[in-house]
Amino acid sequence: MSKKLQSAYDFIIEHNGCCTVNDLANHLNLTARSIHRLFIQHMGIAPKEYLKIIRFNYACKLISNHSEMDLFDVLCTCGYYDQMHFIHEFKEIMKTTPSQFLKISKGHFYFNRPVIMQ
Fold it and tell me: What is the pTM for the complete model shown?
């Protein structure tokens, strides 16, 4: 893995995916287009999509591990503007609504998905 990609990964994880491609580009002193090419080449997806997945995973982890937290507070912590923004992203990633998913998963909201870095 290249040093730039490792630095990008570290930055994204440090911010739990709650950053933009421009934030990442500024951190790495690269253009957003260079970041895009780096991610497509090594990860097979655009950096924006990768950020979305990491942020979504972080939100699911917080929801699962901190049931005492208000859902709105969790979503704001993760950079979602409102509950509908999260639901839309949830449906886009999981292909179902959060409530349908909770029924299917019997309340186990968080999955530990491996991150594959080439």
Answer: 0.78
